[in-house]
Recover the amino acids of this structure.
């Protein structure tokens, strides 16, 4: 880990080793989740990872009803500080999910904390999923949130967001090379993880790290199947149904080769896509 | 077949039986291709189909070099009239591929001829693929071309077009229920047919009929694998590697149920997608 909070070495020169944490502590107990996270971050560091990504609402639980309001905190709150301490101790940047409060509204958020312990970027889920999301959260309005880590341009989406090709395309057009997607995908929707996410990586020519829960919360039975997919559509990592820490390298050279061989981004016809932005179209 | 050239019975009331013609006559010989088409249209009619869809450049060949200019004709030219005659004789609407001349430019085009024998709509490929397309064709500039057949709203794209999520999304937003995609997909790109096309149908909640060639032309070895995919992502038809006539029903009730259960189109955030239409973004 060279530096955090900014550009690393020469852009795109060195692969970034990423760890996908398909696992969570029981919901409603951030303290227990932080204790678990510290152990996982140590394991990720031992595996040489410089970035650790967890599922949606990794530190609080997702289907936790009124606990959302109780556990929501600002992006520089106690949980952020504790994650920063873990990141600094292990030298691993950490992307974690939590309910973010801006003092008034609550968002379904992911924050990326650098290996020096300071927040690098925070993203608020823009495409809310069903009543569960809508009852608890306000939608975010910033479609592309990015940070640079180890010379690689990272972006973040959350769960349902990635199912919209527009959301991923906006990232690719803005230069995102590795898209982090914490998620809480449940049965019977495994096809999202196994078919749709690889299609997204292929069609928009970027890496996608899709990191799912594998527990159950009430009637929700999360389906695991976390993955890291390369821009060519190849699955570099694919988790099973249970708790798992997966590690692989994200290689900017592979990305450049993929974009040279597959010219989707250059062959687009933006002048023909006006219908996609019309107010009545969604 | 109730009527052609306009709306059929009550919109969406009756399934439309479609036949996918994965096959072509040798390139460069439209007369031979029309003779073959007449036989296929009779077989489609016997199977109860009301619509027959062939591959990209089905009546001329695709990789035919300078023959493109020799065989190009206007949308109401001799080939169109002959296809109209076959459609009227068999009572089957026909979508076929040909090089269209507007007197100056030549387009990679598909025309839909109604069962009464008159053209219903013509589409010109907007996303040209590689040097082969670019050397021979001008790009079309109309992203959404539609026609109504048997109460179902049909749209057309060609080959590479469908690989762009924006192109399919524009159709879904414009009401297309069944998207016809004549194609000329070659090895080693079978994944487009087996993975990307089903993702398109699922994410934009429409039927896609993707009809490929299965011959070889020069160095191009077409990979078959034509398919009809339902809005839920289910494959209703999937061809093998050789010549095949596949028949299935496109059911507007299934489409309505899929769109009710999966609210992708309603959950879009068009206000966040401005980057997709920026001139420099393609």
């Amino acid at each position: 880990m060279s530096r955090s909070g900014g550009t690393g070495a020469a852009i795109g020169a060195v692969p970034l080793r990423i760890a996908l944490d398909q696992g969570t502590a029981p919901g409603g107990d951030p303290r227990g989740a932080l204790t678990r996270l510290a152990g996982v971050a140590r394991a990720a560091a031992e595996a040489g990872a410089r970035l650790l990504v967890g599922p949606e609402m990794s530190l609080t639980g997702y289907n936790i009803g009124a606990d959302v309001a109780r556990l929501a905190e600002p992006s520089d709150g106690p949980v952020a500080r504790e994650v920063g301490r873990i990141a600094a101790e292990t030298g691993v940047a950490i992307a974690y999910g939590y309910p973010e409060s801006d003092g008034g509204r609550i968002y379904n958020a992911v924050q990326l904390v650098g290996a020096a312990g300071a927040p690098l970027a925070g993203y608020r889920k823009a495409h809310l999923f069903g009543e569960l999301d809508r009852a608890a959260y306000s939608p975010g309005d910033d479609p592309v949130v990015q940070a640079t880590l180890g010379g690689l341009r990272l972006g973040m989406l959350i769960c349902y967001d990635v199912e919209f090709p527009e959301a991923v395309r906006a990232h690719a057009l803005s230069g995102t090379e590795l898209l982090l997607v914490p998620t809480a995908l449940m049965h019977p929707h495994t096809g999202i993880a196994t078919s749709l996410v690889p299609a997204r990586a292929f069609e928009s020519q970027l890496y996608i790290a899709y990191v799912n829960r594998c527990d159950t919360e009430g009637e929700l039975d999360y389906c695991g199947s976390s993955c890291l997919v390369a821009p060519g559509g190849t699955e570099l990592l694919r988790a099973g149904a249970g708790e798992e820490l997966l590690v692989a390298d994200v290689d900017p050279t592979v990305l450049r080769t993929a974009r040279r061989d597959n010219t989707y981004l250059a062959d687009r016809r933006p002048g023909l896509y006006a219908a996609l932005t019309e107010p009545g179209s969604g």
